[in-house]
Write a structure and sequence with these properties.
mainly alpha; Heme Oxygenase, Chain A; 10 helices
Length: 197
């Protein structure tokens, strides 16, 4: 069992509450109110802007060129793939990328992204990877679970496009690029990050 699997097992109730949240179940069966989905997409767009900053910080904190490349690939995946899906879906409500960027951030979004950035600023690359891990790994589990539900792909499900795209091949590639940053095994005390501040 991997270190992360042991952590998940130790916090299994909390992990399930996160990855099997009622919001995701309502997405899968199509019962989520549209206003809730719209709020989520706008906030997630703002979240991705902050997460892109965290991956940029990962480049800065990287002790090796290979680490820099991994963080840069994650940054590119966020900006060039994931954010574009949000823009495309929000355009259906008449929201432009500018509208999304000007939206008021929710306290919950700010709290988590500030935590991630603070952990990265105060610590080394490992501290940043640990702070990023719940989102990167959790979202991958959520996407896999949603994609496995037949009701998620029903023609009557208004969220089927988001589910299909989010669980689709290009987004999986994007998550793999982003997910590389949380690999903690290559980091050791003998390879301290270039930057700690």
């Amino acid at each position: 069992m991997s270190f992360f699997q042991r952590l998940k097992t130790a916090a299994s109730a909390e992990w399930r509450a996160y990855t099997e949240h009622p919001f995701t179940n309502a997405l899968a069966d199509g019962s989520l109110p549209e206003a809730a989905f719209r709020h989520y997409l706008v906030q997630d767009y703002l979240f991705l802007i902050e997460f892109a900053r965290a991956y940029a910080l990962g480049v800065y904190k990287s002790p090796r060129l290979a680490d820099m490349r991994e963080a840069a690939a994650g940054l590119s995946a966020i900006i060039d793939v994931e954010m574009n899906l949000h823009v495309k879906l929000c355009a259906g409500w008449g929201l432009s990328p500018g509208d999304l960027e000007k939206a008021a951030p929710a306290m919950e979004m700010l709290a988590y992204t500030r935590y991630v950035l603070d952990a990265g600023m105060r610590g080394d690359l490992l501290a940043l990877k640990v702070a990023l891990a719940p989102c990167v790994i959790g979202y991958a589990e959520i996407a896999t679970r949603l994609a496995s539900r037949p009701d998620a792909h029903a023609a009557t499900n208004p969220y089927r496009v988001w589910i299909a795209e989010y669980a689709g091949a290009h987004t999986k590639r994007s998550r793999r690029k982003r997910g590389r940053i949380w690999r903690v095994s290559p980091i050791s005390t003998s390879h301290r990050p270039a930057r700690q501040s």
